Amino acid sequence: MTDRLRVLVTRRWPEAVECALGERFDVVLNDTDQPLSQSELAAAMAEFDALAPTVSDRIDADVIAGGDRVKLIANYGVGFDHIDLAAAKARGIAVSNTPGVLTDATADLALTLILMAARRAGEGERELRSGNWTGWRPTHLIGSALKDKVLGVVGFGRIGQATAERAHHGFGMKIAYFARRESEAAKALDAEFLPDLNDLLSKSDFVSLHVPGGGDTANLIDAQALATMKTGSYLINTARGGVVDHDALADALRSGHLAGAGLDVYPQEPQVPDALLGLENVVLLPHLGSANAETREAMGMRALANIEAFAAGADLPDPVA
């Protein structure tokens, strides 16, 4: 295989990455930056050697069946639940992602959501911008402190650990975590390992989700899990939208069982569940977890490294299938 691989980039990437791709490969860019249709994605499977999609592209079995030319799906992002891995494997298509480089950015955003939810920052800004703020008063928009509160981290991989480090060292929070096994990294945080999710939910003042989407994590935080959470606690999700039952979350927020929530991801983006849109006690962000210039460029360069390895017939740096 030559290094003039034909590559389709489905959305606009940082300029430096697009230039680097163009220097090495025969690259087709999506200048409109509009999501491609399922039929367009399926047609691309017969026209390109490598497909470089993002989370906004649903690479399902029907798309993958569109042609036999694509042999690499180089995903721009760490999550890959939007790609049918079984269908890709059946067709001999390798799949890669971009792990590691967005850890700090996503952990920063998790803390942003914790702070915004705890201090009711979204409510306050909406009140001020609407002209309804009447001035300072002792009982106005009372929120929660973070110091000495328990942050329960669900999933203790790179991003979960980075979030816990920021919360513990930066804000004096106590850390508990739910994971498949105990982590050596937890010792430096004096973090408590709780192998039962319900135990973690019942003792945490804030719960931050850091698990992959799909499979056994679908609706992991359902009505029963939400009922197990402490009254007056907060739920934060920077993982995948499908991890949470959003109708049940809306009920828990509306009833006051949860004091607040902060969400950056949703099950069917860019749609946001209607049940959440009218609630004041939920912070809703448009999937900004990795959205700083340094991280987005690093993600692109990581995807490029996988395409380069594929073109050279070498092992992929970041294979997921």
UniProtKB/TrEMBL annotation:
InterPro entries: D-isomer_2-hydroxyacid_DH, D-isomer_2_OHA_DH_cat_dom, D-isomer_DH_CS, D-isomer_DH_NAD-bd, NAD(P)-bd_dom_sf. Keywords: Oxidoreductase. PANTHER family: 2-HYDROXYACID DEHYDROGENASE-RELATED (PTHR10996), GLYOXYLATE_HYDROXYPYRUVATE REDUCTASE B (PTHR10996:SF283). One of its GO terms (molecular function) is oxidoreductase activity. Belongs to the D-isomer specific 2-hydroxyacid dehydrogenase family. The keyword Ubl conjugation does not apply. Residues 111-289 form the D-isomer specific 2-hydroxyacid dehydrogenase NAD-binding domain. This is D-glycerate dehydrogenase.
